[in-house]
Structures are given as C-alpha cells and as structure tokens.
Amino acid sequence: MCKPRQPQWQRSNVGFENPEQNSPGDSLRDIQDLSLNLKLSLDGEKSEGTGTFDNSLDSIDRKSNLENAFLKLSNGIIGGTEKASLMEKAEQNVSGSRFPVLRSKKYIFVIAVDCDSVSDIPKIIKTIMDVAGKENSIGLILSTSLSICEVHSLLISGSISPLDFDALICNSGGDLYYPSTSSEDGTGLPFSVDLDYQSHIEYRWGGEGLRKTLVRWATSVNEKKGQIVSEDESRSTVHCYTFDVKEPESIPPVKELRKLMRIQALRCNVIYCQNGTTLNVIPVLASRAQALRYLYIRWGMELSGIVVFAGECGDTDYEGLLRGVHKTVILKGIGNTALKLHSNRTYPLDHVLPFDSPNIHHAEGCSNEEIRSSLRKLQVSKE
Questions:
Q1: Does 69 fall in a domain?
Q2: Structure confidence by residue, pLDDT tens digits, 136-195
Q3: Is residue 243 assigned to a domain?
Q4: Which residue segment(s) compose the domain that 68 sits in?
Q5: pLDDT tens-place string over residues 275-315
Q6: Inside any domain, residue 48
Q7: Structural domain count of the chain
Q8: What are the φ and ψ backbone dihedral angles of 161, each rounded to 5 degrees?
Q9: 244 - beta bridge partners?
Q10: Beta strand residue intervals within the chain, DSSP E
Q11: What is the pTM of this model?
C-alpha cells in the first residue's frame, strides 16, 4: 500500500466513510481537502491550524511559504510564471478543479493501455468512454508513460476533452494531474498538478545528481555502441528524466540499470516505455500502480470499484498494474510488440501475474461490445 515516508497532508476522516453520492456536504468537505495544499511548508512538515483558508493565509509569512513551495514543487510545469500570479492561480484551481469527486464515484475506469503505436490510444480511449457513457457514477483516469504535453496533444488530435477525465497519471507515475478549467500556467495547459503527490515521491529522489549520472551513463553507452541513447529535455520533468533510445536491444535491462544507480547510492525506478524506444527514470516511490494507491488513500476511492484496462503486454511496469483487488480487463491484440521488453527476465511474466484471478478477464478485442461483455462477466454494472 502507499506508505508515506514523511507527512503529506492533514487527513480529515469526515466525509471519507460511506459518503453519499452528490451529497450537498461534498462541496464543504472539498474546500477542506483542497486547503491542504495551502498548508505545505518547505521542510515537508504539517503546519498548525484548523484547515480553513483564513487560518492558512492569515499571515504574510505563510503566504510567502506557499509561493515558495508552489515554485519548488511545480518546477518544470509552471516554468517562468510570475510569482505575483501564482497565488491567484492556485486559488482559481482550488475553486475550479473537480478532483475530490473521485470518492463519490461507484466505478473508476483506468485506461492504462500501452499501445504498439501512440496514435492508436485516442481510439481506445473513445471506445472505453463510450462504454462508460455519460453516467456520473463512473470516473475516468488516464495512466500513461507520456508527458502531460504529449497527452494534451493526443487528446486534442482525437477530439477528446481533458475535462472528461478525473485524473491523469503521466510520465509512468512520475506526475499526477487533474483537469482544471482555470489553469493558466506557463504551459497553457488545462491541468493542475497534485503537489501532495510530488511531495510524497520526493523521498530519496536523486534530483540533479541522478540526472547527471544518467547523462554520464548514456555517454558511456554511446561511446561503445554509437549514438543510441540521448536525453530528451523537452519531455523530462522534475520527477521524470526521459531518454530516447534508438536501439532498445543494445541497452542493458531495467534490473541492471537500476543496480548501477544503486551502487552509486541513487535510488530510482527505471521503466522502458513505448516498445523500448523511451526510458523513463522516476523516484523509487513513484509508479503508475503507486499513483493509483495514492488516489485511493488521498480521496477515499473504493478499490473494488476500480477497473484497469490494459493490453496483453506493455511497458516494463506492466505487471504492477494487474496485481491487487481491483478488476482488470485485458484487451486482446494490444501491446504484443512490447513482449520483447520482458524477454530478458529470469522468470516468465505469466509466473507473477494472476491471470487465473476472477478479477481479471480477457476481452476478445477492443470493440464496444467486447468490452461490455467483459465488464458484465466481472459483474461491473452501471445500474
């Protein structure tokens, strides 16, 4: 389970036990939840107070701490946004974001399909959204190795509104975002970052020292085998260092690269994505599975109501998405090319995946009716 190594928020039990769907009290509880971000301090400790906006912003010092924390945790996403506008935009996100509604959903559909071609993702998203329908009882989460900029471009190309999602797990779990109608940061994207999640995964993150070590590693590989690995600064973020890989078969497996970093006292998660053409390096506490566990604890989602949609194979973090008490629909014929990423294992993938679990069903394809049939067999009903 998601075990914080340092204080993250002041959790209130009010409203988390058996909440009534669309209860009028949700709006008040959401304000209390959202005010938690306003109580961050630079040393990661919880500030004292009652959890209200007045107490959080009643002094210039606290306001200054908020600005500094926001700048520190959102570096690479907000970019060069002026300090004077950060407070105003944070307050706008507090009033405009919809993410606390996750706990009122009966089911959460998590789209974690690692397609052989990125261009196939919008079609699968639309199919699953069509199955979910317009029911308010079903939430949608996108879980991917792509950066938030890539996700936004992909959604726009498929004529999909970002507001159709309740959360977006990007960079293989290195970043967690929520749609926002009022976000006007330096990127111009309609998303707000979860600062508490960033604070959580910051534990033992190597930061710039890790990045420099990875760059030296890439240089040594290139000296021996040619230009096959290069840093992709445009897709990298504060908690995800991305590298382009031209020849996936020429670089060491995940386990060896992680071991190399550990020898130098640098802990991290190494994930090969997009059929091995991309390498994401994220904090040791971050992953797509970890982000789901975080959402479960943070917003009180019902684990048994989570349905993960995945392909027959995927990125090297694939197996983590299938384990657990949640339900899983495996789409036949999707992600088969990624099998080569798992070929250097010391054990077969099917030895560690619970394919015989009653919570996992293999759909015959990725059509609307085939997905509906799988959901019926998993006893997932919108009624």
A1: yes
A2: 889 999 999 999 999 999 999 999 999 999 999 999 999 999 998 766 555 678 899 999
A3: yes
A4: 26-99
A5: 889 999 999 999 999 999 999 999 888 888 999 999 988 88
A6: yes
A7: 2
A8: -80, 130
A9: 230, 278
A10: 107-111, 138-143, 167-170, 175-179, 191-193, 229-231, 241-245, 269-273, 278-282, 306-311, 327-331, 360-363
A11: 0.75
